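Morning!

As promised:
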Amino acid sequence: MRTVLVIGGTGTIGSAVVQELGKRHRVITAGRSSGDYRVAIEDIASVRALFAEAGSVDHVVVAAGALHVGPLEQMTHQQFRVGLDSKLMGQVNVALVAQHALNEGGSITLTSGVDAHNPLRGCANTITVNNGIEGFANGAAVELQRGLRINVVNPSLLEESAEKFESLFYGFEPVPASRVACVYSRCVEGAESGKTYCAW
Amino acid sequence: MKKIIVIGASGTIGKGIVEQLGLRHEVITVGRNSGQFQVKIEDPASVEALFQKVGKVDGVVVSAGDLHFGPLAEMSAEQFQVGLNSKLMGQVNVALAAQKYLNDGGSITLTSGSVSENPIRFGANASTVNRAVEGFVMGAAVELQRGLRINVISPTLVDESVEAYGPYFYGMETVPVKRVALAYSRSVEGAENGKTYRVW
């Protein structure tokens, strides 16, 4: 039994990950306004404080981060920064801190999204950010020390969120959160590093 | 004959682009401190001012933007922001403005780099940013109006830069700038949209 920290642990994906990994591990959750600990991933000092409070952690999973969705034609610099500062830099902040805070042989699992490989209208920011995250894991994997691993889960539209996001994803086959959670388990409990696992 | 802006025109690759496109087109050279016009791509107001001065064009090429190279274990959030603010957001700033100032049927060509797919030590920031730029192009391509196109060139290390960057890239075959410049010509003068042209 290892200790797994799930950031975004009360979200749709996060709660499924907690349920799956909770079968075999001690799971602690963190979130902006819910979970066992508070964290704002956009602020590296807040991420450092989280790891200091959480104590000994073997694996960290991030299923959190904001994005901007809207037409390219009207997109502003400020709107584009939303995804860069939150979902991209936020997850990078967690990885930069976790590489020192995690126990030896641990893992970092980040989250991208299906549009990284399947562009959608209104998603220039999300596609940029999701690709950036996959690139980061690919690059960071060759440098991590102490047997640490890093991977990315690329989930498709979830059945549980289908109604909310349907209009962006017409024609996409939604997947149940429980199936996506299995993919997080592969990252945490598997042997690979630098990989993007697509859950679609 | 088309009117084409090359941002980063005095760089190693930029000079090659100017030479290649100059064979058939009117090329306007732009740089941070050199060229016919100056711009700071990190600053959307500076990018807007550039297009105001130059007016309508048929092609925009960006071969500019800073990255941070250094060991992951010592990387700070501030260092990581270098690439996000400059090579990523800088090129996005240009594309967001260019979509308004390009003539119908015009093109935007951005620059990533082979580290997006072939990670190297010290390259976590470059892997992230380059992959993100490729993602942006994929996402923006499905939304551009008026027959505009957007592509990205992913060059490997060029022969001309071996002295400066060789030790990062041992074992990777380098390519002459002349060959890289041809890929920019394909992007500007070809018919494709949303594509990453790899030159390695």
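Chain A has a mean pLDDT of 97.

Hope this helps with the figure draft.
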